[in-house]
Amino acid sequence: MERFARLAAQCLNTVLESPVQWSDLEIPPEPNLGDFAFPCFKLAKQLKKAPPQISKALLEQIQAKGTLPVGLEARTVGPYLNFTVAPQLVLQSLLGDILAGENRGRYGSLAPESRGTWVLEYSSPNVAKPLNIYHLRPTALGAALDRIGRYRGYRVISINHLGDWGKQYGMLTVAFRIFGKTIDSQLSMLDLVDLYVKVNALAENDPKIEEEAKEAFLRLEKGDPEIVALWQKCVEISLREFDRNYARLGVRFDHIWGESHYKNHLTPLIDDLKTRGILVQSEGAWIVPVTDETGQELPPCLLQKSDGATIYATRDVAAALYRYEKFHFDRMTYIVGAEQKLHFKQVFGVLRKMDQKWVDRCEHVAFGLYRFKDAKMSTRKGNFVTLDEVLLQAKERVHGLMIDRQKDSPAGETAPETAPKTVTDSAQSLEAISEAVAVGAVVFHDLHTDPARDVEFDLERVVDFEGETGPYLQYAHTRCLSILRKAHQTGQAGAKIVFQPALTTHLTTEVELQLVKTLGQFPIHLERTLEFSKASQLAHYLIEMTRLFGAFYRECQVLGQASEITQARLMLVEATRRVLGQGLELLGIPLPEKM
Fold it and tell me: In terms of CB atoms within 10 Å, which of 107, 143, 355, 594 comes out highest?
């Protein structure tokens, strides 16, 4: 539908003084209102007319000029000028694009690296602490934007910015001493957490521990061999554990660069800021007075403590400078919790004060918390829920549901040749299916929620096979596969469904037309997902598409009809499978063959 939106925008631009983009058009809330709507409110002040009058005048001008493209109809709907695409044009153009292998079957994709460079920083866990459920928010969202960005032509550079530097590693050094651990000790991630929790508990009653930790971190920054060796051990243990979790989620990074990656850039940065007169001393510490993008004064940004130690703001400024020098990005996005809003305003303020013009290309996408019975998680107090724990609970629940379903499901089905790459082959085990559904359920529940909002986690709702859930979408995808398998097994279709233009005349119901139009909106929603940095945009679209497919499935029998009708509807089933499957893969949702 993007192509028709572009045609509508071009038509509008023949009568508007200020051109509009196709993305300025809205999708009406009801299908009978049209396919695209141009809101005339924004012109009311300029033209000093009411929006309905403007809409009517625009339509009259377009009709007088004769610039309405063939196949598009325009009409006024109150303050909107709406456009509707002719049904046969929709059916032939969109099904042709989806089924004829446009971009080699990657419907809605753009040529690789055909647009700008986008640096994406996401996940960013702290070393010596396991991935907890809170980390799923930046990890799932970042990975989804990463995949969609590449799909839509960006040169994406993904970075996992590990929290592997700072006083907490001085605290771990003290813990090793107090509890008799060495670099030769056999330790797991949970052992490191236990050490960290215990030493913090001791520090609450012994201020000397805090002071010793500060001194240990200063020695780490200066390259003390003994402390560096302990720090490296913590990093190695953590990376092994992180890699296991990322593999389970299907997440990958171009670079895993922790804060330590920039440690050699810190002294030159501090010296440069002092030379410029930007860095000023305050009570022994060094700070930068900063403002936001509007000129509003912010609390000063601390870059060096009075004892000479740097903080993570120093590392973030150094990292931004390094990344621009290396990649000359067009956009850089930090996916970090909402509690860091002020931090990023300060970091951007320092860069602005350094006269780095590209700072306007940087953005912070904030996200909310996970809440279990309204309890905020805190690793420091040892009160946290790991990602493994949540996935295990989800998998156990899904496994039980699958056993109940398996009693009534037909056996011996095999996947058609047209099936997309799936989790395993047709003999995949119940264990693998349960894992795929559990991961899909937890990831989709996160992505379906606006990142700015907190996530209220309710396991029963997350793994439900009905409603706005991951399993609901996965089940719809397997239903498409099941229909295609049965069509092939009964001789009603070949191994591969191909586009046949003449068959579109047999798609005559309103639900068929609306499903095709909705499938054709896929590129639009991908682009809006990137524009707003919200995977919830794509997630809600997939829910709507699946809802329409369910209506089609109930109202329009596919198999056992007259040959032309069956073949036409099989094209629509295959088109749904492709778009739904592609959308789920971009979100990071596994595709089991059956459920």
Answer: 143
How far is 83 from 27, CA to CA, in rounded Å? 10
Q: How many CB atoms lie within 10 A of CB 434?
A: 22
CA dihedral 455, 461, 465, 469 (to 10 degrees): -20
Residue 103 confidence (pLDDT): 52
Same domain, 286 and 139: yes
Verify that 453 and 579 share a domain, yes or no. yes
Tokens 């060495």, located at residue: 182
How many angstroms separate the CA atoms of 314 and 265, rounded? 10
Phi, psi of 194 (to 5 degrees): -60, -45
Question: How far, rounded to the nearest angstrom, does the alpha carbon of residue 423 sit from its chain's CA centroid?
Answer: 21
Nearest to 390 by CA among 282, 340, 283, 463: 463
In a shared domain, residues 276 and 323: yes
Q: Is residue 276 part of a domain?
A: yes
Residues 238 and 162 in one domain: yes
Query: Other C-beta atoms within 10 Å of 321: how many?
Result: 20
508 within some domain: yes
Contact (CB, 8 A) for 170 and 221: no
Predicted structure pTM score: 0.88
Q: Hey, what are 448's tokens?
A: 């379906």
Query: What residues of the chain score a pLDDT lower than 50?
Result: 374-381, 411-427
Residue 99 falls within a domain, yes or no?
no
322 & 418 share domain:
no
In terms of phi and psi (left: phi > 0; alpha: psi -120 to 50; beta: otherwise), the region of 490 is: alpha
**Is residue 96, in this structure, part of any structural domain at all?**
no
Is residue 548 domain-shared with residue 576, that is, in the same domain?
yes
Tell me the average pLDDT of the chain: 91
3-state secondary structure of 106: coil
Give tens-digit pLDDT for 475-519: 999 999 999 999 999 999 888 899 999 999 999 999 999 999 999
Q: Pull the structure tokens for residue 159.
A: 């970075």
Residue 161 Cα distances to 127, 247, 271, angstroms: 11, 18, 24
Helix (H) or strand (E) holding 332: strand 331-337
The pLDDT of residue 409: 60
**CB-CB contact of 374 with 131 (8 Å):** no
- Cα–Cα distance between 144 and 426 in angstroms, integer? 27
- Rounded to whole angstroms, the Cα distance separating 130 from 152 reads 33
Query: What are the structure tokens assigned to 276, written together?
Result: 């410029």
Last residue of a domain, one of 371, 397, 429: 371
The DSSP 8-state label assigned to residue 153 in this structure reads T
| Chain position carrying tokens 């520090």 | 203
Runs of H (alpha helix) within 509-560: 510-520, 522-532, 536-555
214 and 343, same domain (yes or no) = yes
Among residues 343, 371, 399, the one where a domain terminates is 371
**Together in a domain, 463 and 343:** no
List the one residue out of 436, 454, 124 whose CA is nearest residue 249: 436
Burial status of residue 337 (CB atoms within 10 A of its CB: 0-12, 13-18, 19 or more): middle
Number of structural domains the chain divides into:
3
**Structural domain harbouring 162:** 117-371
Q: What pLDDT is attached to residue 52?
A: 94
